[in-house]
Amino acid sequence: MNVVLDGLAPLLDLTVVFCLLAGLLVGTLVGTFPGVTGSMAVAIAAGFTLTLEPVQGLAVLLTIYVGANYGDRIPSILVNTPGTPAAIATTFDGYPLAKQGKAGLALVASSFVTTGGILVSMAVFLLAARPIAQFALKFGPAEMFALVVFGLTVMISISSRSLLKGVIAGIVGLAIATVGRDPVTGDARFVFGVNDLSSGLPFIAVIIGLFGIAELFDQLLTHHQHTVRPISSLGRWWPTRGEIKQMRAPFALGSVIGTFVGAVPAAGGDIAGLIGWDRAKRMSKKPEEFGKGSLEGLAAADTSSSATLGGSLTTTMALGIPGDSVMAVMIGSMVIWGLQPGPSLFSNSPDLVITIAAIMIVATLLSLAISLVRMRGMVRLLDLPVHYLWAGILVFCAVGTYTTTNSMYTVWVMLISGVVGLVMKRTGFPAGPVVLGLLLGPLAEANLRRALLIDGPASLVTQPIAAVLLGLALIGLVTPLIAKVRVARRRGTHSGGARDTASSGLGQ
Amino acid sequence: MDSTGASRVTPSSSDGVIPAPTSKALEIASALGALVFLGALAFLARRIELRTETGGIDPRWWPELLGTFGVVVAVALLVVSVLRRPTPREDVEPSTRAGFVRVVITIALTAAFLLAWPFVGFLVAAAVFLLAVTVVFGGRGWRVLILFPLLTTAFIYLLFDTLLEVPL
Amino acid sequence: MNRRSTHLITAGAAVAATALALSACSGGQSEGGGDADYPSDDVTLIVQAAAGGGSDLTSRALSNELEPILDTSIVVENRPGASGSTAMQYVADQEPDGYTIGFVPVEIAMLGHQEFDVDPADYDFLGQLMLAPGVLVVPADSPYETLDGFIEGAKSEPVSVANSGAGGIWEAAALGLADATGAQITPVPFDGGAPTVAAAIGDQVDAAVAGSGEVSAAVAEGQVKALAIFHSERHPDLPDTPTAAEEGYDDLEFGGWGGIYAPAGLPDDVRSTLESAIEEAATSDGFVDTITASGALAVYKSSDEFADFVSAEYDRFGPILGNG
């Protein structure tokens, strides 16, 4: 009990409270700003916090981490632009909900499941940090490869309209991910002598282009004076009892997936959100609503990407290995303060562990309160005349993208991705699989080749975790195909057209 | 974009969402586009230069695999697009001629903004860019055209350059 | 400017004041080369890595000390990408007026051998700041206890050695170790220092080479065993880890070092102002404490020594990286 009190005492300090609030403000602001990620904000803030006391510094950095995780949902839902990569899966159902005039509902639901996800994962952090972290340590290249292949099967779920086009989009994503230096030998691939290309296409610029800018261009293309955009006709804010019940299962699923994926080093909220969304869709009674404004989909995506926070923290504090890019910066700062995350942190300074957990939990609850309060104002932004909205989005995306590298090249990539995204949208190629390929492709290839370098091909089947994940991926790949073919065959016999049977399973 | 399509529906004044017209030509064109891209991938992947040839799973292996598989899928898509009715496009609205012009101008203005930024500095480039796109998007009046660009530019500058010390 | 001023007046005094103040601060970045009153403006320090890494930390710690000495603002600007060559080429292209300087990592001596357009001759080197010696670690339950045992073992059976990335300093160190001893080493590049150490902790590889700062905590916790440090003397954070020379392998020294450079051709007075300011900052207690806490060594070399060192490193890496 004393340890708990010792851990909580620093939070009563007024300067710490001030640091908490400052961190939250910065976090939500940068999270909302497309392109500026939590890790970038934490990295910049780390430059200022080095001179503070450790607890004050931790208060700033951890609350930015939490705050950004709330802020990034807002542009995802309202304008289809993920504020950070962790909110990619939020766009799948969040934006369709907003288009149906349920922006308020989507924002409220998202805030609550985000809060729940973080709190569940923080409970895991407090109760089971060591066993979880030991499990995460088993994820070597072979296991990572299997996890990533498992993630790639999500492609099937997000290309519901036309499987062929979805797969092509996925291959395009995987292909553009190979631009740059080979991860193992360092040979240049598809660089064509352009130096900027040798580190590959900047991921954040591509997602902002494909989602946000492409959507904006599409509105420019189709908008005419008489159509009323329904987003800001708010409707209700609070979910009904039935809707809450509906979100329960995806919430539970998302918490588990998020905590585990978060604990695996180098896998973060972006991957977790996608996997959580996909698993929930496969479990749902109404999978056909996913991607068209399903509260279940939104709940699954947001819970699992948020639950990675506690998972990452677990690996970071219990092993000293960063669970994601924000935590890498955190470790750097903690070491300068003379605090060394690692196995002995829990035994030597349990009060610090409590303090960290308390900061996270307080930050989470404050973020929820803030997001509920300012939500109305946020949605009001959409009531602005379109010329403000469009111009604002354009310039904000350009600046946010620029700040990731301080190089115009990155902004050009965003603009070109926007044009490509528009063409894809008009021709029916989904953007989701491209982003999935771009995100997971390098991980898949690099980890496969690492695994082969270390142990040869056997490692993929002899390592139990890798084998199980690959098996699940295979099942995930095959069952929807069988289902589609079966549906197609049934349809084919009804209409009696042999040609239909052959192609409808893949064409639609 | 839709110029490949055979039909173009003029926007009606009703506020219901009308799906964009389907178009066989568009489907075939997009399948051909995918085939060209993935064919180029398969072709270029074979020509990646390596410093040391190791054979087996080398830097060429993964792009080649993607390119080859991609070409197969793209051919399947081409066959489907020729043989079958085009996919419904209920998720996109029809484009308008005015909209097409607006997109092209916006892309051109954004490109001009990105070109000018390194030379005239962010403050001038962003303020002028915001003024120009606001005009294109239909904003009128001094408040809209002067105050909005200046305030937005100042806000972004203060947030990044001054508060976060990220130079713009 | 004129047209904008007119607008500002109409727009209201408050906005005008803000915007004018802003444009005043942003103006005139590049004016005044070779001026006697250098520095009369902000100095931009280009970092080749993203915010949050070791290079960024060193740069920000230095700029904190440098600001009062030079009596100007130092703007740290991250230009990550293309193994650091983006930033290096950017620095080479700037006016040599002292208003653009940069953090220069060990890669400057390596990229030229790897088909990047980077040549140390394009820069004026102003001083070395730090050095993180490489350390060879093995998993806690590895059969190897000494460097000698490891190398003998690796002569009979190939071993996998993790490093932080293809073409990076720690891959070169593993290759250099193999070259010098005849051990059969398969370098396995990971994506950064932390995953490399994690692979060793998790027993996924036979060994790993990483910087002293990246491994010292894991060594102290007993998660990995450190067999040798590739440096001329032992490291204060790793007192029990012998140097490679102590273990009988001379001349095996590999380190991730960093310093400050500028585009070649600085005016003499600007150059000497910067050199003495960097010396003062790099040897200040605040900077040394930060670098030491991060697990690296605060090593200062004057600009002439540093320039010689860079060119010696450049020559040394040629054969290791298979270029001459």
Secondary structure elements and pairings:
The complex is a heterotrimer of chains A (508), B (168) and C (324).
Chain A: H1 2-8, H2 14-32, H3 38-49, H4 54-71, H5 73-79, H6 88-99, H7 103-137, H8 141-152, H9 154-158, H10 163-176, E1 180-181, E2 188-189, H11 203-222, H12 241-263, H13 269-283, H14 295-319, H15 325-336, H16 343-348, H17 350-380, H18 386-405, H19 408-427, H20 432-455, H21 459-462, H22 464-495, H23 498-507
Antiparallel strand pairs in A: 1-2
Chain B: H1 24-46, H2 61-83, H3 97-120, H4 122-136, H5 142-164
Helix pairs in contact in B: 1-2, 3-4, 4-5
Chain C: H1 2-11, H2 13-26, E1 43-47, H3 54-70, E2 74-78, H4 85-93, E3 100-105, E4 123-139, H5 147-156, E5 159-163, H6 169-181, E6 185-189, H7 193-201, E7 207-211, H8 212-220, E8 224-230, E9 255-263, H9 268-282, H10 285-293, E10 297-301, H11 303-320
Parallel strand pairs in C: 1-2, 1-3, 5-6, 5-7
Antiparallel strand pairs in C: 3-9, 4-7, 4-8, 4-9, 4-10
Précis, in short:
Chain A has 508 residues and is mostly helical. Chain A has one domain (2-462). Chain A contains 23 helices and 2 strands.
Q: What is the CATH homologous superfamily assignment of the largest domain in chain C?
A: Bordetella uptake gene, domain 1
- Summarize model confidence as the mean pLDDT of chain C: 85
Q: What about the largest sheet of chain A?
A: 2 strands, antiparallel
Q: How many E-type strands of chain C? A: 10
Descriptive notes:
The complex is a heterotrimer of chains A (508), B (168) and C (324). Chain A has helices spanning 2-8, 14-32, 38-49, 54-71, 73-79, 88-99, 103-137, 141-152, 154-158, 163-176, 203-222, 241-263, 269-283, 295-319, 325-336, 343-348, 350-380, 386-405, 408-427, 432-455, 459-462, 464-495, 498-507, and strands spanning 180-181, 188-189. With 508 residues, chain A is mostly helical. Chain A has one domain (2-462). In chain A, a hairpin with a 6-residue loop joins strand 1 and strand 2. Chain A is globular, with a radius of gyration of 23 Å. The model of chain A is unreliable at 495-508 (pLDDT under 50). Chain B is mostly helical. Chain B folds into two domains: 2-83; 97-164, no CATH class. Chain B has five helices and no strands. Chain C has 324 residues and is of the alpha/beta class. In chain C, strands 1, 2, 3, 4, 5, 6, 7, 8, 9 and 10 form a ten-stranded mixed sheet that branches. The longest helix of chain C has 18 residues, at 303-320. In chain C, helix 3 packs antiparallel against helix 10 (285-293). The chains are: A mainly alpha (508), B mainly alpha (168), C alpha/beta (324). Chains in contact: A-B, A-C, B-C.
